[in-house]
Amino acid sequence: MLRNTLSETRRTQLLVLLVAAVFILVAAALAGLVAGSIAALTTTADSIDDQRALQATSGAVQALRKQMAATLRDNAYWDDAYAEVNADTRVDWIIENWASTSADYPLYDTAIVVDSRNVPVVAYRKGVPMEVPPNAFFDDFQALIDAARRVRMSDEVPVHFALSSAGTELVGAAAIQPFESDEALDPKGFYVLVFAKLITPAVLAEVSDSFAIAGLCLDLKPAEGRLAVALKGVSSKDVAFFTWPSMAPGTKSYEKVDGDLQTAGGILILFLCSIGVAGGITVRNLRNSEHAARHRALHDPLTGLLNRAGLLENVAAASDWARQSGKQVKLHFIDLDGFKAVNDAWGHAVGDALIVAVAHRLRDALPKGAFAARLGGDEFAVVTLEGLGAELVPSFGGRLQEALASLFEIDGRSIEIGCSVGVAVSGYGAVHTGELMRRADTALYRAKDLGRGITIDFDDSFDDDALEQAELESQLRATLLKGGISVMFQPLIDARSGAVTGVEALARWRREDGVAIPPDVFIPLAERAGMIDLLGMQVLTTSLNAAAAWPALSLGVNISPLQLKNPRFVEQVKEALEAADFDPHRLTVEVTEGVLISNPEQARRAIDGLKRIGVKVALDDFGSGYASIGSLRRFGFDRMKVDRSLVAALEVDQNAGAVLQATVALANALQIPVTAEGIETERQATVVRLSGCDELQGYLFSRPVNAGEVTALCCAEGSGRTRQGVADRK
Question: Is the pLDDT of residue 4 over 60?
């Protein structure tokens, strides 16, 4: 009986031990399973974040390269650039368009152009000439040039990383060639444009913020324990590395709950739930981080509107929807009128606040389904989806102008601006996004050319006009290269004696087909095409050579405001005077009021330089603009020319005489002699004489004549027939 009892107890003990052992084994297995699950979850979360960071950094590198490639493509595959670098004025043009902008341009800080022999023509870094040859400053510079010459226009522009004397640089190169490829051109003869951007701490910080990569650094070699993406050179070797520490979100999440897990080590279910919660939080944070990075990549940080990349993506999506629904996509490009004056007057802080306020008004004006974007600076875009043929009254462009016409209150300042709008339409979303944006941009420029503050819809004829302007520009360039611009001269008459005291030189252009192009067409064309310096100096040289034969007459020559921006302008005038052996005191340079407003400091330096060499300066078209008394005193003009509109008004406006007299009185009070131009009747001549003008000009006395006729006038003066001789040429 006892043996049976002991056996039962022993069996119970063995059962208890067995159950305990099983429990311990199960608990150990569960603990091991839980521990393994925790380790796997931690490792997986860390790996997911590392892969995200690697993809984001690789994307950032590609974005930097694509941005540089797009900039090079826009600047190198350009008809104007190809023509200019193959012209004698290439250096000035390259400095003005590329080299000088390297001082503060966000996309590059180095601009280099090499010729067909790979000899640098211009090499600027941060707005000043480079002190070291490019091939000594950059590693593999020649290899990059060779790569640029090998690629075709349809190929990807070569952009790589390279070591330089300053550090690691993003460098790209593209052969300068016409936009339309021409098989007859030898690529070996192309000039090559090189842009470079130093990878500075500021660039790293921008990449880090934009792509959510904390602790991003630039290293020549990847450090142990840090993630890295190689920056490849032109020969595909590793130049440097973007490196950053792993954020290890899984590990950090585990560390946060480790204490709780140890405290609740016996509560296995709670432990597993805690891990699940931690894992869920980690995944959610990763997802949120990804969403935030994408939002930053597609939106403007100042206004919160879409940026250019976001606009492209959304226009493409809207076009797809329009194709399916039978709608049309309308793209509005908006440029603020008067924004630059706000920035210049009150600084960029007020300008930024104004941009934000404009963005708010755009949002408020958007109809259902529309979206807005900021393209940069003071340029915006709005996309609307409408039924085919739908016309809003007023148009949405007009509604935008009304929305922006009201005063803005910024930091106690009342600011008034306007806007110009260019509109392009894509029925059924059929127009490619890039072409749609080009059309809207073309329409916007047409709106600005027509006086701003209006809305213009794109028309196919705009492209025809552009081709016509391009042809006219080509003809003007050919004419200038052959010195084909002629000069006529209109006499200046002494108000008291009636004698000819001087002449004003007037440029004339007659094409080879005999068609005369008026100055108000070809002079603005020369200004837009960068040929105004060449045109102006041809007119000046021709005028000086002709007027050298008229020692008793003064010579007036009109100067474009753009010529005053040329730092060598005064030197060129001096060289022309010396070449013609012309007395500088006989020359008067005529400028308009606009130059006093657009860049007064630059104008003052040029005017002071002209005065130092003895050249007089006259203010042309006085009374038609906004020149203040302070400006007149500051610039010290030697003469004023009353605008012809004030003289013409004498025939139709009874108050015109008083206005003219007040205008001339202002000049006389400043002790500045006055010329009245545009005189066509004896009555006008009498009124301007009585108003105090000492010099007269107009068809009443003579139309513009050639140099031979001026010589005849000079001879007539000696015989006492001057006044009648001039009158005969009316």
Answer: no
* Residue of higher predicted confidence among 152 and 568: 568
Q: 């020649």: which residue's tokens? A: 142
Matching residue, tokens 């296995």: 268
pLDDT digits (tens, 9 = 90+) for 624-647: 655 566 667 778 889 999 888 889
pLDDT digits (tens, 9 = 90+) for 398-448: 888 888 888 999 988 889 898 999 999 988 888 899 889 999 998 998 888
The position carrying tokens 């067909």 is 116
Q: Which helix (H) or strand (E) holds 617?
A: strand 616-622
Amino acid identity of 459?
D
409-412: list long-range contacts, CB under 8 Å, 24+ apart.
Answer: 410/346, 410/350, 410/353, 410/354, 410/357, 411/350, 411/353
Identify whether the C-beta of residue 161 lies closer than 8 Å to the C-beta of residue 171.
yes
> Under a CB-based contact definition with an 8 Å cutoff, are residues 556 and 503 in contact?
yes
Domain boundaries, the chain: 308-458
SS (H, E, C) 480-510: HHCCCCEEEEEEEEECCCCCEEEEEEEEEEE
Rounded Cα gap, residues 462 and 385, in angstroms = 24
Q: Token digits for 688?
A: 């301007």
pLDDT of 34: 62
Alpha helices by DSSP H, 586-681: 594-598, 600-612, 629-635, 644-648, 656-669
Residue in 440, 455, 300 with CA at minimum distance from that of residue 372: 300
- Name the residue with higher pLDDT: 561 or 383: 383
Task: Kindly list the distances between the CA atom of residue 527 and the CA atoms of 445, 490, 607, in Å, as whole numbers in the listed order.
Answer: 16, 24, 20
Other CB atoms closer than 10 Å to residue 528's CB: what's the count?
13
Q: Contact at 8 Å (CB) between 703 and 730?
A: yes
198-237: per-residue pLDDT in tens?
999 988 888 888 888 888 898 888 888 789 999 988 888 9
Give yes or no for a contact between 541 and 573, defined as CB atoms under 8 angstroms apart.
Answer: no
The pair phi, psi for residue 172, each rounded to 5°, is -135, 155
Cis upstream peptide for 187 (omega within 30°): no
What CATH code is assigned to 308-458?
A: 3.30.70.270
Q: Is residue 700 within 8 Å of 684, Cβ to Cβ?
A: yes
